[in-house]
From TrEMBL:
Superkingdom in the source lineage: Bacteria
Residue stretches making up the Beta-ketoacyl-[acyl-carrier-protein] synthase III C-terminal domain: 228-314
BP term (GO), one: secondary metabolite biosynthetic process
Keywords, in A-Z order: Acyltransferase, Transferase
One Gene Ontology MF term: 3-oxoacyl-[acyl-carrier-protein] synthase activity
Classification via PANTHER family: 3-OXOACYL-[ACYL-CARRIER-PROTEIN] SYNTHASE 3, BETA-KETOACYL-[ACYL-CARRIER-PROTEIN] SYNTHASE III
Pfam families membership: ACP_syn_III (PF08545), ACP_syn_III_C (PF08541)
Domain Beta-ketoacyl-[acyl-carrier-protein] synthase III N-terminal: 107-168
Stretches that traverse the bilayer: none
Organism: Hymenobacter taeanensis
Protein name in UniProt: Ketoacyl-ACP synthase III
Length: 315
């Protein structure tokens, strides 16, 4: 399985930390020290999870002339911040492409959904049920976020990304998907209450951030080691580690446990905040032009709930 192309979309509006200083007294220095976040993007009044997904889709197809939109035979969308829980972002993408009678799937496993979506594609390819897949990840966190919440209101940003996948290589720049491992850890720690979004009651809340931190560091490190061991590789073989963009302190902790220098990690949280399941895909899009032949990339993720995963790629 190969990733043929990836593209991202980010809303234009930038919300700096000073916004929260004015709103609830949290200083720029405090937010930066605790999270690594200096700014985040906010969707405009006319934007939502679906519109951002559509723009990411347009961009990835425009960047891939060898991948005709009419050939798409599987769409997998992922989000935990849906614009519509019935007419999902996957259906919106299907309507945009005007392709009938193909499978469209929307999933949510919190911030780890990117790899679950890719694993679904892997299954369709293995069964011979698809050959041209489109994965779209999009989060409209600010639609649900409470900015007055001093525990987590400053964490979230909006954004989307789209990936084109095939069972065969279409171009030398394609990324070979060597291994995908995902897992659920809903029975661990405070998985059921640490991060919640209950639309009927309230927006995104994170009352047990420490539990998230501990388990994210543990699982992202462990599953990264597993994908490397499965491919007889060491951390020295990894050119880039792209972690879920949740907290810069988590990224640094994972790097330390793995024994990787900081310049091996790809991070966008400083300017984008936590963009949920779109964060790692956006980071991959940013890194795509600099990837060289023969390089290995690991994407490792962790989501509230809890869920986790890692994927090994080779250019």
């Amino acid at each position: 399985m190969y990733i043929h192309q990836v593209a991202a979309y980010l809303p234009a509006e930038i919300i700096n930390n000073e916004h929260f200083t004015r709103l609830n007294g949290l200083s720029n220095e405090w937010i930066t020290e605790r999270t690594g976040i200096r700014a985040r993007r906010k969707a405009a009044a006319g934007e939502n999870t679906n519109t951002m997904a559509l723009e990411a889709t347009r961009r990835v197809l425009a960047a891939a002339p060898a991948f005709a939109a009419a050939e798409v035979d599987l769409i997998v969308g992922a989000t935990y911040t849906p614009h519509d829980t019935i007419y999902t972002l996957a259906h919106a993408v299907q309507r945009e492409l005007d392709i009938s009678d193909i499978p469209v799937v929307s999933i949510s496993s919190a911030c780890s959904s990117l790899l679950n979506a890719i694993e679904i594609v892997e299954g369709y390819f293995a069964l011979g049920k698809a050959r041209r897949a489109l994965v779209v990840v999009s989060e409209h966190n600010t639609a649900y976020n409470n900015e007055l919440d001093t525990m987590a209101g400053h964490l979230w940003g909006d954004g989307a990304a789209a990936l084109l996948l095939t069972p065969e290589r279409l171009a030398p720049t394609d990324l070979d998907v060597r291994t995908v491992i995902t897992g659920g850890a809903g029975n661990i720690g405070k998985a059921d209450v640490s991060v919640t979004l209950k639309p009927v009651e309230k927006g995104i809340v994170m009352p047990f951030g420490k539990d998230v931190f501990i388990n994210a560091c543990q699982y992202m490190t462990r599953v990264t080691q597993q994908v490397l061991e499965r491919n007889q590789l060491s951390v020295d073989d990894v050119r880039y580690l792209i972690p879920h963009q949740a907290n810069l302190r988590i990224t640094k902790n994972v790097l330390q446990q793995l024994g990787l220098p900081e310049d091996r990690a790809v991070s966008n949280i400083e300017e984008l905040g936590n963009t949920g399941c779109a964060g790692a895909a956006i980071a991959l899009a940013d890194t795509w032009p600099s990837l060289q032949e023969g390089e290995y990339i690991v994407i490792t993720v962790f989501g509230g709930g809890y869920s986790y995963g890692a994927m090994l790629l080779k250019r």
